[in-house]
Each structure stands twice: as structure tokens, then as C-alpha cells.
TrEMBL record:
Binding site for Mo-molybdopterin: N91, Y94, E95, C149, T184, N232, R237, S248, A249, K250
Gene3D superfamilies attached to this UniProt entry: Oxidoreductase, molybdopterin-binding domain (3.90.420.10)
The name this protein goes by in its record: Protein-methionine-sulfoxide reductase catalytic subunit MsrP
Enzyme's top EC category: oxidoreductase
Record note on quaternary structure: Heterodimer of a catalytic subunit (MsrP) and a heme-binding subunit (MsrQ).
Catalytic activity: L-methionyl-[protein] + a quinone + H2O = L-methionyl-(R)-S-oxide-[protein] + a quinol; L-methionyl-[protein] + a quinone + H2O = L-methionyl-(S)-S-oxide-[protein] + a quinol
Function: Part of the MsrPQ system that repairs oxidized periplasmic proteins containing methionine sulfoxide residues (Met-O), using respiratory chain electrons. Thus protects these proteins from oxidative-stress damage caused by reactive species of oxygen and chlorine generated by the host defense mechanisms. MsrPQ is essential for the maintenance of envelope integrity under bleach stress, rescuing a wide series of structurally unrelated periplasmic proteins from methionine oxidation.
Length: 332
């Protein structure tokens, strides 16, 4: 059974740690949501996901990539999904331009097939995975995650993929592997801004091994039940829902296991503005703006209120222990 969290709207599997009061409040919230007009399917399954699936038909633009119901804690939400239109037309993908509208306009040139992802570095079983094999490596799940950009906007997107941990376990990292680096495609012929000086290409990102192994970290192949649109990082990207959007590297071609913290594109571009961790944190401001609130894309009418940003983007219950004892002001 899944229980909606009062604070975050996320549904959590019932467990012995949940207090009776928590369960009671969860039920009350669920009933309130249902009374508010959320489709009745949610009552039958308590999963919420079915209700959203019914309320959000497949966009019908790209090939279907159906996911199954996700049982991962924190991966199901009662929040209203961002529209497909917004999620696929307001993007950051600097290889295709720096304006939010550029990726949707320019990314049609990206050639997503054939595509291989190379696994290298400190692993027992390095190798090259064709995209089709990578897709089949584990059963896909649909997971509804918030993506929160460092610039203060957020979206709620139903991603299709599986935990990156499943791939990591298969390639057997060595004990010396402490970090995972993601290298993305940098092809001047198809990506008009590769070669420009905005960033150092290829765009790279990285995670600490325990972050990469966390079940919420997703290797994503699709969204809204279809393959990823090019502008969202086709054919395969990372989604790290508790970190600022730039950690979620798009169109990855290499996964490298390292002993040292890998350099990352935005940290190289502005060290004091973008740290390695970049966990969503309303208490640590960006040097040039506050991170305390955010604008949910699609809610930007004249009277739309900004939302309070939640620590770890609302996933504190799931990921807080990864940072126990760490000074988050220092490791921003
Ligand atoms: N390769 C690559 N990946 C990238 C980026 C980029 O410029 N290049 N932008 C990042 C940023 S800043 C954000 S907010 C998210 C946006 O993902 P979306 O367009 O799917 O919402 O992608 C991230 N991944
Ligand atoms: Mo971003």
C-alpha cells in the first residue's frame, strides 16, 4: 500500500516505521485529494499513478515506451503533472543553444540511432552497450519525479527507465571506484553550440557512488510513456530528482568509474556557483539569487504563487541519510 506524504505529496510504501498518526494523516490527505476531483482509480489502487495515467493520455508524438507501476519509495506522486507540451518545449540543453526554446527548435538534428554507451574505468566488466540492449537490461518503470532547475523553476515529469544501480551492479565496480562520471555526446556536426565557449565540451557530470546507487537515480529512456524527445536527452539520460537539473546529464555516451571526484561542466564554468553536490537546498542560496522558492512550470499565471522549495527537492526521507553529518553549506 502507498501512503501519500503530507508535506511532499509523494506516496510512500507502508512500512513498520510509519507511525499510526502518519498513516492516519496520509489517508486523510488521500481522501481530500479524491474529494477534490482526482480520478477514482486512485481509490481502488491507492497508487495514484493510475489516476495520473488516465488524466494524462500519451502524447502520441513518438514511439511508445510503456513503463510498469513503480514500487520505488518516493517515485509516485499525487501532484499535477507538467504538461508534455511544457516539458518538451522549455528545456536546457546547451549543445543546442542557451535559450529555453532552442533545444526544441534545434535538436531534431541529433542522431539517436545507432547509439552506444561505453562503460569504463574502475570496473570488472567494462564494455559497450547498444541502446537496445541497455533498454532490455531491466524492466522499465514509470516514475514520477520533480525536476528542479538551479534557475528556480520546476516540473513534475513521468520518466520511464530503471534504477542506474541495476546497470552499475552488472558491471561490477572495483572497491577503488568511489565516483561515477557521465560523459555526454559532443558532436559538432549535429549540435550547433558544441564548439561555442559557453561550456567546456563534452558536457560531463558526476555522482558519488552511493548517490549513483540510490534507487531514485534513474537511467531514463522515456517520458510520458514514449521515448525521450531529442530535446529532453534522447536516447538515454540520467535523472537525479533530489539535485538541481544540471546534474541530470542528457544524451550520455559514457559512464566512467573513478577514484577521484570527477570535474563537472558547470563547476568548471563557475566554481563558486555550482558545486559538485548541488543538492536542492532552500537554505543555501546561489551567489546571485535565492533558492528558497521556485516557479512550477505551467503555474505562471498572473496570480500563481511561487512554491517553497523543499530540502532535497522533497526527497529528504529517501536521501537525507546520504548526507548525514555533512556540512551542506560547504558541500553545496
Ligand atoms: N548534455 C546536457 N545535459 C543537460 C544539460 C545540458 O545543457 N547538456 N542541461 C541540464 C540542465 S541545466 C537541466 S535543468 C536539465 C533539463 O532537463 P529537461 O530539459 O528534460 O527538463 O538537463 C540537464 N542536462
Ligand atoms: Mo538547469
Amino acid at each position: 500500500m502507498l501512503i501519500p506524504s503530507r508535506e511532499t505529496g509523494f506516496l510512500h510504501p507502508r512500512s513498520s516505521e510509519i507511525t499510526p498518526r502518519g498513516i492516519y494523516e496520509g489517508r486523510r490527505d488521500m481522501l481530500r485529494l479524491l474529494a477534490g476531483g482526482v480520478a477514482g482509480a486512485a481509490l481502488a489502487t491507492w497508487a495514484g499513478r493510475d489516476a495520473w495515467a488516465a488524466a494524462t493520455p500519451r502524447p502520441g508524438k513518438l514511439a511508445a515506451l510503456p513503463g510498469g507501476a513503480s514500487a520505488v519509495s518516493g517515485a509516485v506522486t499525487m501532484e499535477k503533472l507538467t504538461s508534455y507540451q511544457d516539458a518538451s518545449s522549455y528545456n536546457n540543453f546547451y549543445e543546442f543553444g542557451t535559450d529555453k526554446a532552442d533545444p526544441a527548435r534545434n535538436a531534431h538534428t541529433l542522431k539517436t540511432s545507432p547509439w552506444t554507451v561505453e562503460v569504463e574505468g574502475l570496473v570488472k566488466k567494462p564494455g559497450k552497450f547498444g541502446i537496445e540492449d541497455l533498454l532490455k537490461l531491466s524492466s522499465q518503470e514509470e516514475r514520477i519525479y520533480r525536476l528542479r532547475c538551479v534557475e528556480g523553476w520546476s516540473m513534475v515529469i513521468p520518466w520511464v527507465g530503471y534504477s542506474l544501480a541495476e546497470l552499475i551492479k552488472r558491471v561490477e565496480p572495483l572497491g577503488s571506484a568511489k565516483y561515477v562520471e557521465f560523459v555526454t555526446l559532443a558532436d559538432k556536426a549535429t549540435m550547433p553550440y558544441v564548439g561555442s565557449r559557453v561550456l567546456d565540451w563534452p558536457y560531463t557530470e558526476g555522482l558519488r557512488m552511493d548517490e549513483a546507487l540510490h534507487p531514485l537515480t534513474l537511467l531514463a529512456f522515456g517520458m510520458y510513456g514514449e521515448v525521450l524527445p531529442n530535446q529532453n536527452g534522447a536516447p538515454v539520460r540520467i535523472v537525479v530528482p533530489w539535485k538541481y537539473g544540471f546534474k541530470s546529464a542528457k544524451s550520455i555516451v559514457k559512464i566512467r568509474f573513478t577514484e577521484k571526484e570527477p570535474p563537472t561542466a558547470w563547476n568548471k564554468a563557475a566554481r563558486n556557483e555550482y558545486g559538485f553536490y548541488s543538492n536542492v537546498n532552500p537554505n543555501v542560496d546561489h551567489p546571485r539569487w535565492s533558492q528558497a522558492t521556485e516557479r512550477r512550470i505551467g503555474e505562471d499565471g498572473l496570480f500563481a504563487k511561487k512554491r517553497k522549495t523543499l530540502l532535497f527537492n522533497g526527497y529528504e526521507a529517501q536521501v537525507g541519510q546520504l548526507y548525514a553529518g555533512m556540512d551542506l553549506q560547504k558541500y553545496y
